[in-house]
Fold this sequence. Notes:
Elements: H1 4-20, E1 28-34, E2 39-46, H2 53-60, H3 64-72, E3 90-97, E4 99-100, E5 106-107, E6 110-111, E7 114-116, E8 125-129, E9 136-137, E10 144-152, H4 155-168, E11 170-172, H5 178-186, H6 188-192, H7 199-202, H8 204-207, H9 216-239, E12 258-265, E13 272-280, E14 283-289, E15 295-306, E16 313-317, E17 322-330, E18 336-340, E19 346-351, H10 360-368, E20 371-373, E21 378-383, E22 390-391, E23 396-402, E24 405-410, E25 415-420, E26 427-428, E27 433-437
Antiparallel strand pairs: 1-2, 3-10, 4-5, 6-9, 7-11, 8-10, 12-13, 12-19, 13-14, 14-15, 15-16, 16-17, 17-18, 18-19, 20-27, 21-23, 21-26, 22-25, 23-24, 25-27
Helix pairs in contact: 4-5
Amino acid sequence: MVGDQIRLQLGEAAKAAAKAVGYYNAGTVEFIFDTTNDQFYFMEMNTRLQVEHPVTEMITGQDLVEWQIRVAAGQKLPITNQIHIPFNGHAIEARVYAEDPDNGFLPQTGKITVLREPDSMDGTVRVDTGIREGDTITTFYDPMISKVIVHGKDRDHAISGLYRALQQYKVIGLPTNIKFLERVLKHPVFKSGVFDTSFIEQNQDQLLKPSKELSLYRRGSVAIVKVWLENLKYRTRRDSDLDPWAMRDMFRINHSPMRSVTIVKGDEDAGEEFHVQYDSEHRFNVYLKDDKGMFCPIILDAECDLSNTNPDQMIIRTDHHSYMVDYYMDTKEYNIVTQLDYEGAPLNYKVKATKPIMDDEEEAAASAADHVKSPMPGTVVKVACKAGDKVKAGTVLATLESMKMEYQIKATHDCEVSNVHIQAGQFVNQKQKLISFA
């Protein structure tokens, strides 16, 4: 669209604008280009590099940030003639945001519990970010997580490369626009290059898709993942412990134990209670109870194992099916299992958080504690006690909300409340002291 002559004219106009105000440093001048007559018009100038500057860097092989520092230090630029700047192929950039495209692109806040960035693909993929796994997206800053920039020999190859990179990108903990970006890249109108700012509005039926409902079969699979991973922890400990009575795994002699797992959708309090039966270390059955309390089979003789190629996938095989279950299990947040949808994005189904099985030593320590701490970062929804209250073990003292889930803080033993350190609406950090006992 923009040939060498037009590019030269744009450069001269940009330099003239900078000279007119006596500006000597890196800057970005924006123009509006009229494709009907190849005329351009000055729009604005920003006295800084733009967010899109990596696109230029990928095409030219130049480091614009280094250039900016050189200018500020009074040094000469390594290249001073526009015709000496190389142009190689095509580059495209996508901004990964913590936002909800299906809800008006509203910004989202929360902790990033899992962050899997795409690989460099032989240097053609670049990820600019200041976010790490475990960081929290707050309301105080822009919710951008990263920029993904991909280089290709032409526009089509760059689009294909960016699509592959975004497929590798996994962010769990809060909604993102990753899957929306993938749908944009696959859309024929975007691929054609002939579109304007009304592109999303005109194609929202294809670009903004509601999450698919998770089938009963797949919800049962989430329950299997939860039990299998939980059992793995205690099975590993069993293999290294000589005392069989200290083990907390599901192994039984002449008996197939059953464990209940509640799957909840979104912010709903109630959920479906699945009953997972342990046949062996790798085989499970899943049941639901009917109105008469009878067990109805959902999944039978499911053989389970972790994927050898992807640490966030489990392989489940039955007589009729063989499929992968994408998941994430946060052992720090009381074993919350998140099912990933058909596009790899977090679904709105989760295993209801429950207190994990504790060892005898852990139980004794909890019973003897003179205070309770927050098990997770979150907001205090309700405080149900005050100093001087005498409470029994198991009494609800406060309610926290974290990641759209409520968690009840309970007394670990019969005691008297000596001090309440929190109030409703307060944000607390993980392991922060909430309530002290006399």
